[in-house]
Amino acid sequence: MQRTICSILLMILIVISCGCQAEPKKASKEQALPALTALVNEISSFDNRIYVYRDYADGWNHFTQRTWRGEYGIKPILLQEYATVAYSGTTSIHTAINFKQQKWGGFLFLNGALGPGEFEPILNLGEVDAGMDLTGAQALVFYARGQNGGEKVEFFCSGLGHNELGPQEPFADSAPKISTGIITLSTEWKQYTLKLNGYDLKRISCGFGWIAQADHNKEQEQIEFLVDEVYFSVNTPPEKLMLASYSPVPTAREDYVINNAAFVNDNALACIALFRGGQKERASQIAQGLVFAAKYDRYFSDGRIRNAYQSGTLNNFPGWYSGQRKTYAVLPSFYLFTTQRWHEDYYMVSSDLTSIAWAILALCEAAENYPEQTDYAVTAKQLAKFALQFRDENTAGFYSGFGGWEQGQKLLEAKSTQYNLEIMAAFKRVASLPGIIAQEKEQYLTAAQSAESFILQQYDPEQSCFLPGLGVARTSDSVLLDSNSLAALILPVEYQGQKEKALHFVREHLRAQVGYSCSDTDLKGIWWSGTAQMALALIEVEPEETQAELSSALQQAKLSSGMLPAASIDYLDSGRRNIGDERPTYFFNRAHIGATAWLALVEMNSNPFISQKIRN
User: Fold this and answer.
1) What average pLDDT does this structure show over 338-366?
2) Exposure pattern of 349-381 as b/e (b: 16+ CB <10 Å)?
3) Which residues are registered as beta bridge partners of 212?
4) Which of 53, 85, 110, 152 could be a cystine partner for 216, CB 3.0 to 4.6 Å?
């Protein structure tokens, strides 16, 4: 996989943090929590499935390498993995073969292999030990339909490295070819199931394939057909995962490049919301993903976490290495048709303070819910220790993290009010973990005080609001919503006067229709995550009907899935430029994990910065 610096013209800024000092109202067990249900439904949609193909460039896909097999080495006309006619999601695989050119042909969907230090995978036809262990899989399920009807195709899995005499390659698939036989397709989508019981599936490198022959399609010179939702049926849900922050969009849209990006901020907030809603098992799936990401970086061994990971179970494919590591958390990438290569994004591979802070908060929540599982507390303290290096030793506050790729990372010397608010809350939370020694506790509380001092320096008494910070690139001299809503939610009660004035400033200057925008320079659309922050913050200082008004607007903005979009319009300007490379950062009108988690917290009137023990 090619790994290059790509300055795409968009970047999604995932800004999530919240808190308040007043004890929130508890949601009764009978109270409906539709946003929480939407999060549970999103996670449960991956239960008991190992996908071969879910959507184009989807993070849950396996067996991603394609190779054609057929007569005379002539390829079929087409294998297009982003057809817009789909059974589910946004894309399907559209494929064709012309029998004037060859009498038979088809494609294999292989695991491939990636050698240490390499960027381009090889196909691996059984020469390399890189098969996937699918032991326990009960069936291969897929959906297919013909373009015109009557297309006759054979579908199959396994059998790589075999011929009629059996396995021939040193690492041939452990099972022979398992076939549907010849299937006649109609113009309607139909589910097909290939039973796998009784087969040895411990090493499978060919996850799916198809072959079509002229002899079986005598009435047609060419056939075309579509395939979608190809997966192995298994008995158990994934132990760990991260969810894509945004719902997918077709490749015709520029912002498709974030389709498989699971931002740490969003997943951490969803983790906390799920714990607060009593969904411990679902929350722990994300918490385990955070632990894995911090433990198995592809390059570093210092316990850091990146800003985003590839959505899915995070594991690299069998036989796919990065550097010298055989196990690592996969970072997101995207295919650019202009370069015909896969690329990675500057922000996603970076380690910003906001991502570190939110991972700490989620892991502290997990440690509280699962005190017997020490890996949560250990990883939270490990991340907190990593964050200490960004403290400005000369003045108050914390720098913004590390930007860029492994061998060219640089310190991001800007100091963000938002980031300092979040890390302040994270340090306080980790300092309260059971079993933490006195010296560590003092160290983290001192660090939290440094962040707090910087935040107070950013309060502008003339405007009665909190400024974005020092050296934080902005599209103008804008005032940002989260610098104020988060200050109102996180700062201690002794700063109640500044908090109330900051909220008043937001209400006067950042109101956009029935909600709030990101900054006072672009009021064309609503930032739903920020609006949810305000709904929680206003509990402290405003009449109940004001908070209810925002809650009603948030509920009305939900999509049919129950998910909340990040913004009411596409390309809503966040008011910021990316700290590392100064690209504009935007939000989109797409279903969003972070926004939905915020809404779930509003539904519960729950503050993610107050521990369960304190609240209860």
Assistant:
1) 93
2) bbbbbbbbbbbbbbbbbbbbbbeeeebbbbbbb
3) 105
4) 152
Q: Which residue has tokens 């929680």?
A: 536
- Please say whether the beta carbons of 568 and 525 come within 8 A: yes
**Per-residue pLDDT tens over the stretch 238-279:** 999 999 999 999 888 889 999 999 999 999 999 999 999 999
Main-chain phi, psi angles of 8, to 5 degrees: -65, 155
Task: Give residue 490's identity as a one-letter amino acid code.
Answer: I
CB atoms within 10 A of CB 493: 10
Most confident region among 65-79, 122-136, 535-549 by mean pLDDT: 122-136
Distance of CA 199 to the CA centre of its chain: 34
Residue that the structure tokens 């403290």 belong to = 391
Tokens representing residue 565 in the block: 């979009």
**Which residue in the block uniquely carries the two structure tokens 């963000």?**
416
What's the rounded Cα separation, in Å, for the pair 131 and 89?
A: 28
Structure-token pair, residue 465: 């609001």
Give Cα 25 to chain centroid, integer Å. Answer: 30
Report strand pairing: 401-403 vs 308-310: unpaired
Three-class DSSP labels, 515-527: EECCECCECCCCE
Nearest in space to 554 (alpha carbons), one of 543, 564, 542, 539: 564
**HSE on the CB side for 88, CA within 13 Å?**
14
Residue 76 to residue 103: CA distance in whole angstroms: 11
Tokens at 234, concatenated:
């298994």
- The per-residue pLDDT for range 1-37, each reduced to its tens digit, is 333 333 232 333 333 233 333 334 444 433 468 999 9
